[in-house]
Write a structure and sequence with these properties.
The structure is a homodimer of 244-residue chains. By secondary structure, chain A is an alpha+beta fold. Chain A folds into two domains: 163 residues, CofE-like (60s Ribosomal Protein L30, Chain: A), CATH 3.30.1330; 69 residues, Alpha-Beta Complex (CofE-like fold), CATH 3.90.1660.10. Helices cover 26% and strands 25% of the residues of chain A. The first copy, chain A, is built from six helices and twelve strands. In chain A, a hairpin with a 6-residue loop joins strand 8 and strand 9. In chain A, 49% of the residues are buried. Chains A and B meet through strand 1, strand 9, strand 11 and helix 6 of A and strand 1, strand 9, strand 11 and helix 6 of B. Strand 1 of chain A pairs antiparallel with strand 1 of chain B.
Chain lengths: 244, 244
């Protein structure tokens, strides 16, 4: 069956305490069971007030030092450090950290794009909870069983460019584990464990664009396992990671 | 506009010198301009005879050593080494290499899944050329302007599970560069450069599955830049990579 990637245009700048589920449902086509909502981190952050006015940030000495080394705004660096559990790599002006939620990404997800000048957005405090809350609201309002993913745009080791990945998950198992299943020749698959939620976010990004106003995308006709799972299970534990 | 991910079922085991374009077109819906064909590496490799009968492989001493350390088949390790430019990490039984084509991946893409017992597939010798050849054939047979991506399934640093990524590209710019463009607030985007070809391959994987016979997927209604580009431009150069 053809899988559909349906953009949901939202022509309103999302603000703190906007009724996000209502805005999404107003803009979306008629919801069906098993629709997967992929929602950009940016609008979740704005809706949750996870946004800083840079003029109010007082940079630490460390932030001032890093900023001067890399010609960055020390207030932005301070915002990054305040979201950071540990720095993984810092080189060529790039700051890769592990966030307090365990994500490895540039700038701890602190981002000045697509937000009013002088402000930066932070990642949601608990993106799995944000996804769960939105899913419950959409389910309650529509009576349909849906899944919600919160996506952000991350660079990768070894490869150029960025792809979207899931930082919040609700109502869908984010991994599709084939280990132990049989391939087309009846041989047991040994390693295949697809990062389904990341693939869904990457697919959704195709319909989002960065300069459009499509912060939400519905993926339809994709059969998924609704068993519990969170974005935490997409984070590779330290002892299994060869590159941290 | 809704983007479509259309699986193309091919119920024939692909062999050396099968007429792949004909088999794909026979199984596909009517082709339209701008259809993007995402083709699994596995069937390209089989079609190009990039398959080894393990009984004919004579393992080197190094291969025997690595294999005994990690309880692997020394003939498979030898096949991996023969595809390898350099070893990036070797730990916990995982062998991450840079292939002769510059890809960083586990086992140099050597894979015993979805192939007859006792054999392993190697990556195509030049996946960009493979993509170009298939694209020309499809274009010539249909009179339509199409793009072709060859995809493989890769693990990632920091994150669990695997996603599909592009190892061969023809007829589409694999990167979608927003740098210098304006965001929704008129601010210049500084870093966004989407790895479009990888996102397309990830989207296609959703319709492929590992245990199904959908080695080809068409992505339709996605507007793309057809300017020249190869999968090589998705490989991060050493001097820009923080994790090799």
């Amino acid at each position: 069956m053809t899988i559909e990637i349906i953009p949901v245009p939202i022509n309103k700048e999302i603000e703190n305490d906007d009724k996000l589920a209502d805005l999404i449902l107003k803009a979306a086509p008629k919801i069906q069971d098993n629709d997967i909502f992929v929602v950009s981190q940016k609008i979740i952050s704005k809706n949750e007030g996870r946004i800083v006015f840079l003029d109010t940030v007082i940079p630490s000495l460390l932030a001032v030092g890093i900023a001067s080394e890399y010609q960055k705004d020390s207030r932005v660096v301070e915002a990054i450090l305040s979201e950071t559990k540990r720095i993984i790599r810092m080189k060529n002006g790039i700051i890769i950290v592990e966030t307090k939620n365990g994500l490895v990404c540039a700038n701890a997800g602190v981002d000045e794009s697509n937000v009013v000048n002088g402000f930066a957005t932070l990642l949601p405090k608990n993106p799995d909870e944000s996804a769960e809350k939105l899913r419950n609201e959409i389910s309650n309002k529509t009576g349909k069983k849906v899944a919600v993913l919160i996506s952000d745009t991350f660079g990768r080791a070894f490869r150029m460019g960025q792809t979207d990945a899931a930082i919040g998950v609700s109502g869908i198992n984010p991994l599709l584990d084939y280990r132990g299943k049989k391939d087309t020749f009846g041989k047991e698959l040994k390693v295949t464990n697809i990062a389904l939620a990341d693939e869904l976010c990457a697919a959704a990004e195709l319909a989002k664009g960065k300069t459009l106003k499509h912060p939400v995308v519905i993926i339809r006709n994709y059969k998924f396992d609704e068993s519990k799972g969170t974005a935490k299970s997409l984070i590779r534990p330290d002892d299994e990671d060869l590159f941290k």
